Each structure stands twice: as structure tokens, then as C-alpha cells.
Amino acid sequence: MGVARAKYLLVGSTEAYSGKSAAILGIADQLKRQGISIGYGKPLTIEHDHCPVNAEADVSFIIQSLALPEAAIKPPFLCLDPSNLGGYLQSESSGLPPQLPSLQDYLQDITGELILLEGPATLSEGSLVNLSLAQMSRQIDAPILLVARYHAIELIDQLLDAKQRLGDRLIGVLINDVPEAELVTVKQTLEPFLETHQLPLLGLLPRDRLLRSVSVRELAAQLEAKVLCRGDRLDLMVETLTIGAMNVNSALEYFRKGRNMAVVTGGDRTELQLAALETSTNCLILTGHATPQDFILSRAEDLEIPILSVDLDTLTTVEIADQAFGQVRLQEPIKVRCIQDLMQAHFDTTRLVRTLGLEPSALNV
Predict the structure, then answer these.
(1) Average confidence (pLDDT) over 99-108
(2) What integer pLDDT is reported at residue 119 of this predicted model?
(3) Which end of the chain is more exposed for a tag (fewer CB within 10 A), N or C?
(4) Could you read off the pLDDT of 66-76 as tens digits, one per residue?
(5) How confident is the model at residue 246 (pLDDT cuts 50, 70, 90)?
(6) Strand partners, 174
(7) List of residues 6+ apart from 58 with CB closer than 8 A
(8) What is the pLDDT of residue 346?
(9) Beta bridge partners of 78
(10) In 185-199, which positions are buried (b, 16+ CB within 10 angstroms) versus exposed (e)?
């Protein structure tokens, strides 16, 4: 009796930062709990000029978090970036297609009953090199799970457009980042609508403060900041960004309303720095070129709060930090555990297994 052919599941998204990687980690965890062996690959990575985070570093973190055997992992075989884009454009202009390894060859020796393949960030990304979501699906006859971030209006149009473009290969939708107050309404109204349009809703994940947070380490990297103290506490998570620019009495009242903040203030604003340290602050970001007072550093050391110093003005600092919150990535183990718990509670793994036609005998039930 021959070895059963592995099945594939392509996980794509409607837009960048929709939670595609998080969904893969959650699905893999659920399936492994049921005794289904998993493989993972991401054929294409794309490095963007406007994104300071290395795409291959993201893939490495996913691979590490999945904790799979080496034979069950396939690193990217193509990275598209500004340095090699011209070569592909010239190939297309000359009428000669780029010489690329085939997707079938890439996946030939990967092991696992179900191979989870991470697709591009959007439906169109990768089209130049014949590796868009739809193109990959056709090449290996793989069904698609689509991850979409919740938007009250645009979401429906995005999903209907995806259904039109992907057809029956689209076997389900996972909607991420739904505000807690809207979960019941979304389920009661959106789910029946999607099911009517042959768009099975496999999961609704509620918005989570931790998943939307950014580590102090990530902020320091993106700001190119100098760590003045508590470099051992850069794994602290920051949920909100606050600007300390008012008088100290107003600031203290303002800071007390925050939770797990990064407070941006001038290096010479000693009274604001002290006020921030006495509230729910996980990081102080000091702008300008003034060195904080020794007693501020001493107090931060005692409270285990990192202080970062940046050679930027306050406006630029806030813009860069805001971008970090808008491009939240899974780079911390605590976030992996959080998404696994959310998927266990809010994702219909049983329906996915049934849709994929995985053998019941493979389940550890």
C-alpha cells in the first residue's frame, strides 16, 4: 500500500497585516493536538522599502514557533526585493519568463499529512513571478483559507471580490480583530450572509490587546534607539503610545488612564518622566539630546522600566512608533500562546478537517 499524498492548505489574506501568520500558528497547534502531522512552507517573501522588518526573520520565527521536524519545513525559495525586481521586469519585457523553480519541485520532499503554505499578503501580490494566491492554488491544486482583518464596511466587499477571483478553491474565511462589543452582531448578521455566498465562516477572533501590542525591543529597533537602562526588560509589551507634553498635573491624570504605555517626552522634562514612571508605563522614550537625571535612571532601574533615547524630534518619533503598532508582527512567544488560545476558543477546526478530507483515523480522538 503506497504512502498517502500530502494535502495542502494555502493561507492567504485580503491585505497586509491581517493575521495570516498568526492563523497558521493557531491552526497548526489545533491540528497537532488532534494527531495530524503538519508541514510548513512559504514559497515567496517580499521585502518592501517602507517596511523596516526583515520578511525572512518573520519566517524564521514562525518556523521556530511551529517546532516541526526539519523534513516538515520549507524555507522560501524566492525573495522578491527592490534589488532583484529589475531582473524580473526585464525578463517579462523581453518575452522570456523568469527562470524559477516550480512550486511542485519546491514541495516535493516535504513531510506531513497537511502542508500549511503561507501565501502572499494580498490577492495580487506575487503575480509577477506566477506566485499569487490564485496562481499557487492552481499549480498544486490547493484549497485556500482566507484571513481578513475586520472592517465594518470594506470587509464584505473584500470577501465577495475574493470569492469571485478564487472561486471554489476558497473553502473558508477567518475574520480577525473583531471588537468584543460587535462579536455577537457580526456572527448573527455576517455569518449567514457569507454562508449564503458559499463563503464558510470558520472563525471570528475577538480583538486582543496583547496581539495589538509591540515589544519595547521592537520599538527600540525601529526607532534606532539607545537603551539607557534595563536592557534586560525589552520583552515588555507596550499597548499604547502616549505623548508627555503638558504640565505635570495634567500629565499625571492623563498617564493614570493609560495601561502598559510607552511615554514619549523630552529628555529635559524630568517632572514628566518621573510622573510616567509612577504609572502604568512599560517604556520611556526620550527625544532631543538631553541626558536624563541620575535619579530618573535610578528610579527606572528600581521599577524595571527601560528608558530609550532617540536622536529624533517628538513628531518623527511618534510617527515611527505609530507605524510599528500598525504593522504588528508575531515576534514574541507570549503572542504565540495568546493566538493559540484564541484559535482554540473561536476557530472551527473540526469543520476545517472535514472540508479538507483528512482521514478520521488520523485524529487522536
Answers:
(1) 81
(2) 95
(3) N
(4) 889 999 999 88
(5) low
(6) 147, 203
(7) 21, 329, 330, 331
(8) 95
(9) 44
(10) ebeeebbeebeeeeb
Written in H, E and C, the secondary structure of 27-73 is: HHHHHHHCCCCEEEECCEEECCCCCCCCHHHHHHHHHHHHCCCHHHE
Query: Which amino acid is located at 19 in the chain?
Result: G
User: Which residue from 173, 159, 154, 168 is spatially nearest to 20, judged by alpha carbons?
Assistant: 173
* Residue labelled with grid coordinates 523568469: 98
Please state, in angstroms and rounded to a whole number, the distance separating the CA atoms of residues 176 and 18: 7
- How confident is the prediction for the chain on average, in pLDDT? 86
Task: Say whether pTM exceeds 0.90.
Answer: no
Is the separation of the CB atoms in 241 and 283 below 8 Å?
A: no
- Encoded amino acid at 67, one letter: A
Question: Which whole-number Å values give the CA distances from 345 to 30, 157, 341, 349, in the listed order?
Answer: 10, 27, 6, 10
Q: How far is CA 164 from CA 34, 70, 158, 197, 351, in A?
A: 33, 37, 10, 10, 23
